[in-house]
Amino acid sequence: MLSPKPVVDTNVFIGGGTTPVHMVEAFAVASGKGGTGKTTSTLALGMALSEEYDVTVVDADMGMANLLFHADLEAVETTLHDVLVDGGAPVEAAVYERHGLSVVPCGTSLADFAAADPTRLRDVVATLAADTDVILLDSAATLSSRAAVLPVVLADRVVVVLEPTIPSLSDGLKVQEYATSYDTGTAGILFNKVRDDDAIARIAPKAERYFEGPTLATVPESHEVRAARRAGRPLLAHAPASEAAAAYREAVRTLDVRDGDSGTVADRFRSAVVPESP
Amino acid sequence: MKLPRGRLVRSRVVTDPRTLLVDALDRGVTGYAVLEPQESLLLDGEGRGVVTFETGVPVVAYHTGTERGGPPALADLAAEGPYQLELFELDAADLAEVHARESFRVPPGMAAERLVGDPALAERTREATPAGVAAGAAGVGGGVAGADGESANAPRPPSEPDPSPGGQGDAEADERQVGAVEAFLDDEEKVAAIREEARAEAEARAEQWGFE
Questions:
Q1: Which of A64, A258, B53, B164 would you label with A25, given CA atoms 20 to 30 Å apart?
Q2: What is the pTM of this model?
């Protein structure tokens, strides 16, 4: 199978060492099913990473966007949908600075989703890669369409968000297999909505045997997370001192962000073999 | 069933109503969701499901196509999907009249079990049930809920508030679930089979979707 991410080192062509090298890695935050707390986790990881890196969070769940409800962006005019239409807005118009992050929200209109061409996401990510250290793609909670799988195809590695239940673990394993098929690695797994510390201490090591990355953290189920959702604010902004927020910071300490040359990454995204919609 | 329109908080297509139920529960939404199966959108047919929530817990279900309420309405909805979803927030007072219709009420965990087949979510929903909703649910709980299996998974009658959070019934249910998860992860052959199937599916779709 041809790799969707052929590695082309542009530095070879532009003189290598003389060009300032900017580092970037793109992660897809994914889970096979809905309701695992993927969007909460994406923003929490992003905010924790932003203490060290320049982070851009993209709502790549194009058919069922909800990042805007988590990040106080409900009223914004331009979203990813507007960028993905033919002759649409430039990416920069859909980037908003919130909570120390650059956030690219996606709209929720079905008509806008129908008009958008998800394959343009590749160019969006390539453009963003030029100006950030870490890109987090909040991915769809399904593997049933090309648009849903695209973030996993484009990312360097996936962070798999799991609940400690059989359906969630089973779906998480499927996500990893999809990722592996597209040469996307696994950065780690993140157990969310954990209610029993003793149980997760037994379950996590057993699960790790099947995942290519470590357990980044186990995030307890908590009223602070629900309160943050109700307030429409990211957890780390709403309850920075909570146990759940601490778990996300711990996850980021375990997550080894790898240096990739932004030119290489941008080029790789642009050259990903993704055909236009029929 | 007449409901004020309320404040629209979500409008989108969902393939998996689990997202709706989890979202409503996590945010403690009081209001109602209208679920219109895409099939009926395309065929211009009738039939929308309405599920009301009180602090995130489903209270009443009704299907406009079959004009059935309560557990049968969930059955009517469960057969269809994806859905166009609209979620509205309302004051609890605006829901009082509808919530008084005993025959429309559903046991708290039933939507999670029937619409998304998720016993853990059902359990979590039961735990979050406000006392007022639990008392009302007991009205249908005796006959209807018992007959369709809700009570089999409920560690205690919903009308009896648990004296302590994480009481003995919950602990036992959790223990059973943890045991099942561990057994699943110990079954290397089963896990390998899931992974192989997913890999084959991913590769077949890569070709179909042009990711090759």
A1: A64
A2: 0.71
| CATH for A57 | 3.40.50.300
ipTM over 0.90: no
* Chain B residues inside the 8 Å CB shell of A182: 202, 206, 211
**pLDDT tens, N- to C-terminus, chain B (212 residues):** 578 888 888 887 777 788 889 989 988 899 999 988 766 544 445 678 899 999 999 999 998 888 889 988 888 887 656 778 888 999 998 998 889 888 899 999 999 988 888 888 999 999 988 876 766 544 443 333 333 334 333 333 333 333 344 445 566 767 777 888 999 999 999 999 999 999 999 999 888 887 75
- Tell me whether residue B164 is exposed, middle or buried, using C-beta atoms within 10 angstroms of its C-beta: 0 to 12, 13 to 18, 19 or more: exposed
Count of structural domains, chain A: 1
Instruction: List the domain range (segments joined by +) for residue A109.
Output: 23-268
Q: B177 to chain A: which residues are within 8 Å by CB? A: 165
Residue A5 placed within a domain: no
**Min CA distance, A20 vs chain B (Å)?**
32
Is A13 a member of any domain?
no
How far is it, in rounded angstroms, from Cα A91 to Cα A73? 16
Contact B98, B1 (CB under 8 A): yes
